[in-house]
Amino acid sequence: MNIEFKNPPVAKQGRGLSSEIQEIQKVLMANPGKWALIKKDTYATVASQWRKRPGFEAKASSIGKTNRKSDIYARYVGPAA
User: Fold this and answer.
1) Domain boundaries, the chain
2) Confidence at residue 51, expressed as pLDDT on a 0 to 100 scale
3) Three-state DSSP class for 52?
4) Which of 13, 27, 46, 76 has the fewest C-beta atoms lying within 10 Å of its C-beta?
5) What is the percent of the chain with per-residue pLDDT over 70, rounded to a whole number?
């Protein structure tokens, strides 16, 4: 058996936040505490991505019984952004 000890390669930097997400964040931060419809007819997992952002809350609202998509609402609640 041949085992080699070495550090893993350095992770490449991501592309950063898209301009759309940056714009949504700015608008939400300018209106703290107010819910906004930020995405229509999309997957509920989009809300979970926003919940991971410090200072933001998000909820998915199912569009209908047969449609698996949701509308996404989000708001800025704190200075942690």
Assistant:
1) 19-76
2) 86
3) coil
4) 13
5) 85
